[in-house]
Amino acid sequence: MENKVNIPWEDRPAGCKEVVWRSSQNPIIDRYHIPTSNSIFNSAVVRYGDGFAGVFRCDNRSVQMNIFAGRSADGINWEIDENPIEWKCGNTTMIDSTYKYDPRCTWIEDRYWITWCNGYKGQPTIGIGYTFDFKEFYQCENAFLPFNRNGVLFPEKINGKYAMMSRPSDSGHTPFGDIYVSYSPDMKYWGEHRHIMGPTPFPLSAWQCTKIGAGTVPFLTDEGWLMFYHGVITTCNGFRYAMGAAILDRDDPSKVLYRTQPYLLGPAAPYELVGDVPNVVFPCASLQEGDKVCIYYGAADTHVCMAFGYISEIIDFVKKNNCAGK
Amino acid sequence: MENKVNIPWEDRPAGCKEVVWRSSQNPIIDRYHIPTSNSIFNSAVVRYGDGFAGVFRCDNRSVQMNIFAGRSADGINWEIDENPIEWKCGNTTMIDSTYKYDPRCTWIEDRYWITWCNGYKGQPTIGIGYTFDFKEFYQCENAFLPFNRNGVLFPEKINGKYAMMSRPSDSGHTPFGDIYVSYSPDMKYWGEHRHIMGPTPFPLSAWQCTKIGAGTVPFLTDEGWLMFYHGVITTCNGFRYAMGAAILDRDDPSKVLYRTQPYLLGPAAPYELVGDVPNVVFPCASLQEGDKVCIYYGAADTHVCMAFGYISEIIDFVKKNNCAGK
Amino acid sequence: MENKVNIPWEDRPAGCKEVVWRSSQNPIIDRYHIPTSNSIFNSAVVRYGDGFAGVFRCDNRSVQMNIFAGRSADGINWEIDENPIEWKCGNTTMIDSTYKYDPRCTWIEDRYWITWCNGYKGQPTIGIGYTFDFKEFYQCENAFLPFNRNGVLFPEKINGKYAMMSRPSDSGHTPFGDIYVSYSPDMKYWGEHRHIMGPTPFPLSAWQCTKIGAGTVPFLTDEGWLMFYHGVITTCNGFRYAMGAAILDRDDPSKVLYRTQPYLLGPAAPYELVGDVPNVVFPCASLQEGDKVCIYYGAADTHVCMAFGYISEIIDFVKKNNCAGK
Amino acid sequence: MENKVNIPWEDRPAGCKEVVWRSSQNPIIDRYHIPTSNSIFNSAVVRYGDGFAGVFRCDNRSVQMNIFAGRSADGINWEIDENPIEWKCGNTTMIDSTYKYDPRCTWIEDRYWITWCNGYKGQPTIGIGYTFDFKEFYQCENAFLPFNRNGVLFPEKINGKYAMMSRPSDSGHTPFGDIYVSYSPDMKYWGEHRHIMGPTPFPLSAWQCTKIGAGTVPFLTDEGWLMFYHGVITTCNGFRYAMGAAILDRDDPSKVLYRTQPYLLGPAAPYELVGDVPNVVFPCASLQEGDKVCIYYGAADTHVCMAFGYISEIIDFVKKNNCAGK
Amino acid sequence: MENKVNIPWEDRPAGCKEVVWRSSQNPIIDRYHIPTSNSIFNSAVVRYGDGFAGVFRCDNRSVQMNIFAGRSADGINWEIDENPIEWKCGNTTMIDSTYKYDPRCTWIEDRYWITWCNGYKGQPTIGIGYTFDFKEFYQCENAFLPFNRNGVLFPEKINGKYAMMSRPSDSGHTPFGDIYVSYSPDMKYWGEHRHIMGPTPFPLSAWQCTKIGAGTVPFLTDEGWLMFYHGVITTCNGFRYAMGAAILDRDDPSKVLYRTQPYLLGPAAPYELVGDVPNVVFPCASLQEGDKVCIYYGAADTHVCMAFGYISEIIDFVKKNNCAGK
Amino acid sequence: MENKVNIPWEDRPAGCKEVVWRSSQNPIIDRYHIPTSNSIFNSAVVRYGDGFAGVFRCDNRSVQMNIFAGRSADGINWEIDENPIEWKCGNTTMIDSTYKYDPRCTWIEDRYWITWCNGYKGQPTIGIGYTFDFKEFYQCENAFLPFNRNGVLFPEKINGKYAMMSRPSDSGHTPFGDIYVSYSPDMKYWGEHRHIMGPTPFPLSAWQCTKIGAGTVPFLTDEGWLMFYHGVITTCNGFRYAMGAAILDRDDPSKVLYRTQPYLLGPAAPYELVGDVPNVVFPCASLQEGDKVCIYYGAADTHVCMAFGYISEIIDFVKKNNCAGK
Question: Can you tell me the ipTM of this complex?
Fold first, then answer.
């Protein structure tokens, strides 16, 4: 169950007029944070116990992708396990996994559910697992057929069913991508797949015109589900990832109520512009405390960073700069 | 319920040593068989009433893809409706469909189930519907998220669940493709996705080295499920589709017991070599009668053809020319 | 000036329900019609003198592209010069041309104007020339910057200016293409470029969803300018070219009044399905006589063919099957 | 009319042996210079009034591209309007524009003419406009059909006609590109298109072997028109843009008298190597004062920079390092 | 040793004005000539014993590529072994071969040497073998590193060394390709690699503008080595292969004395236009008898065909239609 | 002959746990080290005379690639000639070279042998030369046919023959690549080509899953030949080059005894992450002294850097982290 510990926070810097601002301690987790890592990024953080727990994407120096558990008292200084998570059987006996990356994590009812991009027979789809204590982990049936990435669960059932966003993909560096929502009565069989939103038609909002993908676990606000997501533009030198926000209908999240036309956070700091993959801001988790939100994002596919904002201001911004339906 | 009417049949021609041979009446359905059609191919045929019923892919002259019902006393001479099938709501109120193509059809328990490639928001996935009488048709929830093609149901439940093969794809002329099986307790939610088989590693069997896809509805034999499928090679002038066969385990069809290394039928007749897409043999349906099988296949993405064989000989051939596991 | 000679004509064959039907003499000009030719196709025909004159694309056996003059009494049996057209200076001293192909021809006021795809410094743009007698030919300034193809003049001035359709392209086998109209006071300087129409959004009319290009010189009807054009779809084995028709506003041809959703003529005859480039129907010229129209089209980038129809029926068809604005 | 105000200038740094050197104040305009901007780069500067005026490409945080007016007393410290330029009708009633980017600006006879890459129906071509006072702006007919970029006017008529350089392109991140010149009697109709120069044959000068494009408005010297242009090489990680110079014949600028084999300025400073598009130096404007020249260039598609040089030294360098005609 | 048996021959058909004409018996070997074959094409023929021997590319129905020995009394009616050639060790113990295709064969000094495209670790290079009797075959070291295809030996040593032409390639359907010659003192180590000729610069001779490859074993004439080779053009629907001829310097075959600008034989017969790969004419062997030459070529990657000509006329044609050095 | 001068060395920094660590003086040679250079990287260093000699890749400001001789007393501070090496004829009269890059150098028996990527007719292959004194240089026959890169000689004969590693390539930024070894009795004719190793199957070791290439001249250890090589991964923003090590069998170097699964040195320092080609570590030479090794590598295709390690530790690491044969 989620606690009431204070989330990491820094006030808006003097002179800053941004709705979302960076932590002065960025990157809070460096690429070599554990002995075997080549890079640590695109990771999940939740409240747990007296502090926080996390599931971290640590690519090792063979550049094999796996996910690792970690713990922190303050959400800033992290102890990450030196070995990847070991999995027991959840609702399946089949826990084949060629690789794991880009985890998300959320509490639903009685446990923490984790989703990630799971390599089944080497093809990417959405892996599901759960833990009660971040010590023992149980792997379930993959949610979907390949090819899929960026599976993100809603933190409570909707109309009595589990709900998950995902982004159908192809087998490579997919140059397209829409966000869908799917439902399950039991975390094993999935259906009722509905389209939420896709890339924007050029030139409405070019930073998200190539593909988009769900980012952080959405949380409920008076306006509906607030989610931070990533959008991608294709420059002559490759992909550039930035972060926006969307507000989805509480009861039918396939209805997009509002969606940012401008990005909220784009690659501009040195640690976002330079790294294993230059020009990447990739949100994967957020913590809320009253009107405050702390967003965890991967930077340049290399390190973990934080950004802050006021939820009410973000909602205002999304509504004023809405491009949904345009 | 399926009848006992004689299936279309021609004896093996004198001098022919092939395991599978073409009908002398090919193509049995020409591209302009109905007034609006540009091409009729990749279609489904089942026993029905006193004869046969079918679901036909007829692309019209706007080259819009849709599926049409048809009836035949002998399985050779077909009356195809001039208008595409109209759908009522089955287990869903959402029957959005940008296009429909490549139908398959099979009787399960109490009705005929139809699957096809369904354009949801313009993205290809597997559509599901049913009919009791080939007059009224009911559309259900799409089985999977895009991108998917070649959804083929097993003709009976396996371990108490519906089972469907499909081929995860991308958004274009997909240059890869494996066959998976998925299960559903209710034809609405799907899971337990398992890999069946993929393209062959070069140069084991190059006609199926680019991608493969399920073809005809499998039928039970003493050896297991016998299915005709298509395999694709990429020549310097594009894709070439040929037909092979596989035998899958009765209780766990993700186990491939045998699979043809050589093709059973490759493009060689003029109507297979020339047409809207040259060099295509694409099996979608079969009828059995004792040891005889009649295979319906699309030729050159233009017309419908038939081929014949003896099931026992085909099983022999698949076992002797097995490449599964190699 | 254009004469009143009877155009080539064959009545609609018994049983045929098509709006446009093929000549029984197709292909009327074979690939080896002149000693040096590899192929003759995509050519222009006009009334001239006591019969007809033409400008023919003859690729020679080095597969160099050039255009040749020809004459015919009946429009069917053609004498084509063995040497390509030699050009004198028209409104320019610069008549550089790396290659010439896909000519169109029309009488305007006092002379026959010819347009073609002209290789300037090896880059394709629209060449312009004129002749009074099909013996002496004068080359003018290229109309546009590269890259451009399918330049087709209107047969009279519109609002006092010459008007030309064209299709901006890229440097290769362009996978996109819209039809524009541009204006010139003097056949030397061009401007006022306006978009007419582009490929159709999938799946409205897939035969024309990759690119389209102006085809025959438009002619005036009570409904506006009637033009036959080509549309292209990309199959897994390459491009397929079919023919449609559009009716453009008399005074402002950038306004598309009607446009065929189904094609009028698609590759289906052997000489259209097989050749140097399979599956091509490419209209370049038409002759009218009362309600009759004879369309000249290139088939399979290999030979010249003819098709026939009644103008009133074609107008009816275009209006009933209109997809403009959808 | 242009004034005599001193241009921005810094002497060559001690120890520097370069012909062109960077400003120590680079980048002089940062990406977030105005509240809505994501990046400000590839912009035009001219003398105006008591100082300087400019037209700036500011992509906003929706990454929509538009151009903005700005004013400066010293050419270094700029006030840029917070809203993009609003246009009135010049020689056309059609001022459709999906987007605007990469402006250039020059005084001709009685007004300032501005050119830019203009999105007509979403397809890039060359937009033209003028202003007398940088307060009211008038948009004219697009110069050319799509696809085109980098339109740069000569600052005076040549042989009585307006002259513009441009680079015919394709619909994406064009991997080819030559510089052409076109002429117009009236800024409305354009013709007499002539090839100036293309990418260099490998390995003559590899920094400009993929494509080139006109950069700054040329100015007259004793040797002819001196222009700074950009050249592009394709590395395994994308495009790299550097700056060279060319001298064109005064009366017939399609004659290239000299052209730099080595680049004059290549990406090497941190603000050129890192940004939204790494490794870009993109010159768009220059100011002259006696023998001094100040070049404005976009860096990394992110900010505006300046470089300096002596015109006489640059001419010497171009002549000594000439690769024209090789 | 080569015999004096009459080669296959048909006189030039009445009315035919071609320098090279097709056999009326084409295709002389059909795709299903042996029980396991999918296609038989691109094969080598030499005089042997009382008639002829051959090495045939027979792709089986698994579309595995291998080479088979065959014998014929007349060069037209062939008995081809049902099993591929088995190899003993020649000058190597390493006879790994993933696949074999496109053989050529020639007598040098004391034995028949065979070259082919050999899959070493699945990567194409040039395999070498020899036989004295077409019963026992010995495989030698591969001549070159991958990636290479179309290795063709000269039929005698040049300057005391073996000489082989080849076409360096890439790992797929290579879109480029030049002919080189390399030398060896011992058929084991190769060096002194020299460029012979490459594709023609567009638009000199477009049928050979994408790539070219050595075809038949060259034979000495008074003018030098006469070789038939293939050239390829890329149409919007893929590659098209045609046949030309070149005359190389007797002592230094890297010197091209003459080379056909027009092709000698292009795909135009139905069996060349239609098949597994449409539009392919691919010469691999020739037989000479006085002034007569019989050329064996693969058609449409499906069957084996023959064409005829007079050597003196071909030499005349090559000299008159020379494009070498242009 | 090689001397006993101390190699450049820095002890492992305090706290560093890496097997290989960077020089604190990196980059030791900057991009503008000589007046004409755009970049200096991927260069060879050997012991010579009283110190060291080197062959350097210096791309000039025309971005022409050539190699230059240099000398240094300490291996850190280098004097590089301002003009590229001039070549006399070695074992050939043909020393055509369009460009030269990525040199390697080693002493064998009586002289220093140099190999590089040599542009023959503009196509990359392996050039060979030698020098006795780094003043006079002699060019030999190219080792192989194009397309090849990364030719690296063994520093002594193996089984009486010269041995060279190389990486067969294609004509562009090759997206594949294996390391081969070839043998020569005389440095002129080459054969007995054997595959050493290729990219790793995903996801065994993703940093080397696109292509690999030989790096430094191997040196003998008790375990066999120790070589540093580069491996490449394809990110969504291009190639990333890192460094690993392999140990090859002393007598048959095609046998890979051990090979690093993790990289030894990946791009992480600013000068490796940013430059003309971001994210490149490319080893080309090493110096040994007892258990110490100094590795020279190119960084970001821009400058020359050094790294250090203990040979015994590296061998340990390679053996413990072996992925050969997996």
Answer: 0.96
